[in-house]
Amino acid sequence: MNFSAVFKAAGVAGLVLLAACASSKGPDVVANGDTGSTGGTRGSAAAPGSQEDLEQNAGHRVFFGYNEYTLTPQAQATLARQAAWLKQYPNVRIMLAGNCDERGTREYNLALGARRAEAARAYLVSLGVDGSRVQTVSYGKERPLDTRSTEDAWSVNRNATTTITSVGS
Fold first, then answer.
1. Which of 20, 29, 81, 160 is least enclosed by beta carbons within 10 angstroms?
2. 138 by DSSP, 3-state: which?
3. Residues of the chain with pLDDT under 50
4. How far is residue 7's CA from residue 13's CA, in Å, rounded to a whole number?
5. Rounded to whole angstroms, how far apart are CA atoms 23 and 3?
6. Residue 80: exposed, middle, or buried by beta-carbon count in 10 A (0-12, 13-18, 19+)?
7. What are the phi and psi torsion angles at 30 (to 5°)?
8. pLDDT for the residue numbered 135
9. What is the helix, strand, coil percentage profile of the chain, to 5?
10. What's residue 80's pLDDT?
């Protein structure tokens, strides 16, 4: 019996099984917690210019490291997709909300969340989005996506989230 061939076949079968079990539900976070939605259409067709369209085709969340507000390359890529999407829908106005994990004081996290939201806003503006279309707010640690006290939860909660506030004419 050729055990090498059996182990290779078992490994391939395991990978196929894992791929089949993968789900697109939940936040789009890679192992290091650096990125938000990857963009690309995932499900049913969203109304053009809607929040669902933004989330499916550009991504609506970028993630940050612990005590960081600098944009990772993955965050920049998501924001570049958002900028292209916003240029396609010039009447859409957005809110960038900066969020933090539960560690640190309320005041510190409000300030850090503000810096995260502003970093994302500044990057969108640098890509040609009219700054008057982009508001920022900080929620600090007040609106966690994941309420657990774990590193995985904290990495998801350190984000800037883009939400459509209005669609003008």
1. 20
2. strand
3. 1-41
4. 10
5. 32
6. middle
7. -85, 175
8. 98
9. 45, 15, 40
10. 98
| Tokens of residue 67, six digits | 């005590």
Cβ atoms of 121 and 162 closer than 8 Å: no
Q: Are 64 and 81 in contact (CB under 8 A)?
A: no
Sorted by sequence, the CB contacts under 8 Å of residue 14 that are 6+ apart come out as none
What residue segments make up the domains of the chain, in order of their start?
28-167
**d(Cα 72, Cα 64) in Å, to the nearest integer?**
7
CATH superfamily membership of 28-167: OmpA-like domain (3.30.1330.60)
pTM recorded for the entire structure = 0.75
Taken as a whole, the chain contains a residue count of 169
* CA-to-CA separations, 7 to 10, 12, 17, 113, in angstroms, rounded: 5, 9, 15, 49
Q: Where does residue 33 fall: left (phi above 0), alpha (psi -120 to 50 degrees), or beta otherwise?
A: left
Residue 99 and residue 144 in contact, taking contact as beta carbons nearer than 8 Å: yes
Give burial (CB, 10 Å; 0-12/13-18/19+) of 13: exposed
